[in-house]
């Protein structure tokens, strides 16, 4: 049975997930942000059923994560509420319509600027939401012994760059930070040194912050949900980092460069940065600008390790 589009109601809010292109879709004024990659945003999965009159979603590229987000969006949308979802064709856009139809939605679709934009009115009856939510929920990954969730960087394995850096990390001491801490793999290794006084794990993904609190139980650890480029840490003895080079699925070489600049600002004189990077990332010039000395420690398997001292 068809559902009439919901009339605007002061008791229902509008929401946005991520950063949908303004040239493709209008985000309602005052929409609450729900993306885990926006520090301070509300959590989509924590919203009550039928809480929103309108939702606009920049869909994530991973299929498990995307279906988890779509299922929660439909759960939190009131019957008759409007949902608009968009994604690049090569980053899940080709599957969007089918995924929404599988939940029981009647979907209109159009294409613009290499994006697929799907819109619908939420029906009374939906199918398969709980299966999609369960598949994308936080889980302990037995193979790596870590709490994680689909959508987090390298969510079900220790990535090769981190593994290489782990092999070259010395025993550290004093106050330090893990910038882009993810699930806390590097932090676990750093805190194995009794000379470490305090370690701040800085991570922009709320889901990873929540998982790392389970994975890293050392009382010397502090957890900060923030963009490492904007964190006001200072006078640190050391920093470890496996910086990102993608922003919501799009390669951005400036991200890692900005992490290096931020690390230089946070470290005290003679403080040291230990950094892993994909071999093709152009970080050397930024390192030489921000640090007094830069020493390559390894270059193998497509990754390079640097020790940079203030």
Number of strands: 17
Number of domains: 2
In terms of per-residue confidence, which ranges show pLDDT below 50 for 5 or more consecutive residues? none
CATH structural architecture of the largest domain = 3-Layer(aba) Sandwich
Q: Biggest sheet, strands in spatial order?
A: 11-10-9-12-15-17-16
**CATH homologous superfamily name of the largest domain?**
Vaccinia Virus protein VP39
How large a portion of the residues is in β-strands, by DSSP E? 25-35%
Order of helices and strands: EEEHEHEEHEEHEHEHEEEEHEHEE
End-to-end Cα distance, whole Å, is 67 Å
Tally of helical segments:
8
Oligomer: single chain
What would the CATH topology of the largest domain be?
Answer: Rossmann fold
The first-level CATH class name of the largest domain: Alpha Beta
- Output the radius of gyration: 21 Å
Average pLDDT reading: 94
* Shape, principal axes of CA atoms: elongated
Major sheet description: 7 strands, mixed
Helix content: 10-25%
What class, by secondary structure content? alpha/beta
Describe what is shown at a glance.
By secondary structure, this protein is an alpha/beta fold. The chain has helices at 63-76, 93-102, 129-135, 160-168, 185-190, 206-215, 253-266, 284-290, and strands at 13-17, 32-33, 52-58, 77-88, 108-112, 115-121, 139-141, 146-148, 174-179, 196-203, 221-225, 236-241, 246-247, 250-251, 267-278, 293-300, 303-309. The strands form four sheets. A seven-stranded mixed β-sheet has the order 11-10-9-12-15-17-16, with helices on both faces.
